[in-house]
Amino acid sequence: MASSESLWSTLSAPLIRQNPVTLQILGICSALAVTTSLDTALTMAASLTVVVVVAAGVISLIRRHIPSAIRLIIQIIIIASIVIVIDQVLKAWFFELSQRLSVFVSLIATNCIVLGRTESFARSNPPLRSMVDALGSGLGYGLVLVLVGACRELFGMGKLLGMQVLPLAESGGWFTPLGLMLLAPSAFFLLGGLIWALRSIWPEQAEAPEFPPYSRGPTDTGEAR
Amino acid sequence: MADLNPVSLWRRFLATPNDGRAKTLIVAFLVSAICAVLVTGATVVLRPIQAQNRAAEQQARLEALIAAVPGMSDLIAEAGGDALSTLVVDLDAGAAAADVTPETLEAALSDPANWTSLAPADDVAGIGNRPDYAQIYLLRSGDAVSLVILPVVGTGYAGRIQALLALQGDMRTLAGIAVTEQSETPGLGARIEEPLWQQNFAGKQLFDDSGTYRFSVVRGSARTEFEVDGITGATRTSNAIGQMVRFWVGQKGYGPLMAAIRRGEF
């Protein structure tokens, strides 16, 4: 069962080790915006996963007939159409959530993960494999979103999925919410910490520094300069 | 004789080289056409459900607003079932609109001629232009108007803020506010949606005894009956709410209407 095994690795590789957010640093923009609470993060992750899987499937189906001169335009058109359809569906059946996600669902169209997977994988692989790969990438993105979203909601509001977990100081408990967690910079901090942790576990993920620091020699301690 | 069988034509088309000019054009056209049909289909099929959602949302906010005004449910019960009347008003005239009804309001507002663009000096709420007609809600007790609910719109930190403003019959006292649409920062500016904050508005005065506008959303905590607490960390959202109220109760907003209600014309 070599093929099913490789399908499994196609699916699982982007979850943690090849995670599109932490390794390739893709899709950061929306990861900042929608992670103020866990439920928006979950909806966004689900929407992105659906978009990337469907887009990869469609593009993989017509991959032999996409003229290379206009391949990016064709991919973008397909992705954008799927995004609009999903946005409309959310507005019709998940009205409250769609109000909170506001423009970010439409911005999936510009999410680098989607175009990245269709351009680098779906364009040269059969539909099933492409969709499995896309599913993995979508779930990997979702995993990071959920982690960051849970941290921000827990420490920013003392809640998880809208339920009070930590009793707030203003209503008699002990927890003072950390307002910074609700602002975009905190997502940078959390993501940075996450990437640091992952690259400490797997040092091979760290990129070589582009500009190596000036070496002052072994005797220099670098103190008080 | 040329082969006109569509299946074999299609096969021949697929077999042409990918980078040929004809294939590039045809593929581009086909993909766009299919996507256009998909998008249009989804929009058209789902629009009624979305409109329903928005209307239900508006209605729910309206009911919540009325329920939150102290003593209001008693008033409604007193006045009997259908006490809240819906009315389209002409903002400049400050009177009921002659030829626009709630049913035709949407059509009227899709005509740019029914909008007034605001000079920068007048445009304190930062909305650019303003509709000439608005649908308001009136509650009467006896002959007098005891409450009006006015839809208002302003520009916040991250986007448009829509709200319903409830005024007591004296047209000076705020009875409440309900934010119906906003896209402010969650946890900070978005706290304008919290009932706890909105409760601050009930009973505040818009004008002092000489009729001068005094109401504002202040930084920190309110000290007078003209002030409402701002939201910490969301100064621009708080200011936007203050400016929105200032605009809509002013001369370019519902000012003429409020004057007419004060004169007892409703």
Topology at a glance:
The complex is a heterodimer of chains A (225) and B (266).
Chain A (H helix, E strand, L loop, with lengths): L1 H11 L15 H6 L4 H24 L9 H23 L1 H7 L10 H9 L6 H31 L1 E2 L2 E2 L19 H18 L24
Antiparallel strand pairs in A: 1-2
Helix pairs in contact in A: 1-7, 3-4, 3-6, 3-7, 4-5, 4-6, 6-7, 7-8
Chain B lengths: L5 H10 L5 H48 L3 H8 L4 E7 L4 E2 L8 H5 L5 E3 L11 E3 L1 E9 L2 E12 L4 E9 L5 E8 L13 H4 L17 E3 L8 E3 L5 H14 L6 H8 L4
Parallel strand pairs in B: 9-10
Antiparallel strand pairs in B: 1-2, 1-5, 3-4, 5-6, 6-7, 7-8
The tally of helices of chain A reads: 8
Distance between the termini of chain B: 82 Å
Topology of chain A as a string of helices (H) and strands (E)? HHHHHHHEEH
Q: Outline of chain A, from the CA principal axes? A: globular
Strand line-up in the sheet with most strands of chain A: 1-2
Reported for the largest beta sheet of chain A, the result is: 2 strands, antiparallel
Overall domain count of chain B: 2
**What Rg of chain A is obtained from the alpha carbons, in whole angstroms?**
21 Å
Average predicted local confidence, pLDDT of chain B? 84
Approximately how much helix is present in the residues of chain A?
55-70%
Query: Mean of residue pLDDT of chain A?
Result: 82
> Low-confidence parts of chain B, pLDDT < 50 over ≥5 residues?
none
Taken together, the total number of domains of chain A comes to 1
Given the helix and strand composition of chain A, which structural class is it?
A: mainly alpha
